[in-house]
Structure formats: structure tokens, C-alpha cells
Design a protein that fits this description.
Helix content is 17%, strand content 26%. The protein is α+β, with helices and mostly antiparallel strands.
Length: 184
């Protein structure tokens, strides 16, 4: 195959698909659904995970609102332009991009530029102010923590659930003993 005819491919790396290559047509959808152009079974991919398209000699990728994300060179993207040698990851499945090199493609001054969108960084809440505590021994001692008396809602719910189960087991045991005494 000459360089002019070189097709875009994704070659799996480092997982159970290692070494398998998938040729990209003019428009391909990758996912675990059998209706996809590139079907890869497994729980890590969404039914329709990403769309790949060749336009003006460039390979474009767009995440299809997948659950586990699409990554280009370890950065999460929603859409991007791929180059030979790039590494694309769909959750835990990693692929190396192969295709015509930049020198083999004709530059298009009117080409649409594709943007890489980084997910917004989650803001961490500011640290709680440190109060002046009079430690008896050392700060890690449970008896020295004043906030140990506060129980979260989920902890309260867990304690209520455990107590309810214990009461039901106790009632069931009493009913069984009553049955044995009555009928034996």
C-alpha cells in the first residue's frame, strides 16, 4: 500500500485486544452495541461510545456522551483531531492511531478547527478553620476529638437499620421458642 493510500487505523495496546487493528472508514461509530461499525464487547464502553470520521484527510473523533469518557493522550476530550502516533483511550481500552503523516496530507487553509474541551476542575471546599483546642495528649486520640459526638445522617440511618434487624431477629427467635413450647 502506498503512502497516498494509507488508511487510518486504531491498534489496541495493553489489554485483551492487544495488537488488533480496526480500520476507520469515512464515518465509524465505536462502541459495544452490535449496530456500531467497530463493535468491542465489554462493560467499559458505552453502547455508542465515540464517533470517528475522516474529513479532508484528517481523522476527527467525537465522544458520544459516553459514561466513562474518551481520552486523547491522557486528556479527556469531547472532540478533537487525531494525528498518527496519538494514543486514544476509551475508559480502560487504549489504542494507538496510525494514518498518513502530516507531510503526506495537503494542508487546507479553510479546514475547520476542532477544539479540545477539558472538563471543568471540581472546586474543593476551603479547609475548615482550625480551632484552638486544648489537647490532653495528642491530636489523634479519639477522646480528644470534640466532633466525635456528631453523627452523620447516614451513620444514624445505619444504626437504625442495624437495630431494626436485631429486633426482628429477636422477635423471630422468641416466636420460634414460643412455637416449640406450645407444640412440644
Amino acid at each position: 500500500m502506498s503512502d497516498d493510500e494509507k488508511k487510518w487505523t486504531l491498534t489496541a495496546e495493553g489489554d485483551w485486544l492487544a495488537g488488533q487493528s480496526f480500520e476507520i472508514g469515512n464515518h465509524s461509530v465505536l462502541g459495544r452495541d452490535s449496530s456500531c461499525d467497530i463493535t468491542i464487547p465489554g462493560t467499559h464502553l458505552s453502547r455508542q461510545h465515540a464517533e470517528l470520521a475522516v474529513k479532508d484527510g484528517r481523522l476527527l473523533i467525537r465522544d458520544l456522551d459516553s459514561s466513562n469518557g474518551t481520552f486523547l493522550n491522557d486528556k479527556q476530550i469531547t472532540e478533537a483531531s487525531l494525528n498518527p502516533g496519538d494514543v486514544v483511550r476509551f475508559d480502560v481500552l487504549t489504542f494507538k492511531v496510525d494514518g498518513p503523516s502530516e507531510s503526506e496530507k495537503e494542508p487546507d487553509a479553510n479546514a475547520t478547527k476542532v477544539r479540545v474541551v477539558q472538563p471543568a476542575a471540581k472546586k474543593k471546599p476551603p479547609p475548615k478553620p482550625v480551632s484552638d483546642k486544648n489537647w490532653k495528649t495528642k491530636p489523634s486520640s479519639v477522646g480528644n476529638r470534640h466532633d466525635t459526638m456528631q453523627i452523620s445522617t447516614s451513620q444514624k440511618a445505619s444504626k437504625v437499620l442495624i437495630n431494626s434487624i436485631a429486633i426482628m431477629i429477636g422477635l423471630a427467635a422468641l416466636a420460634g421458642i414460643g412455637y416449640l413450647i406450645t407444640y412440644l
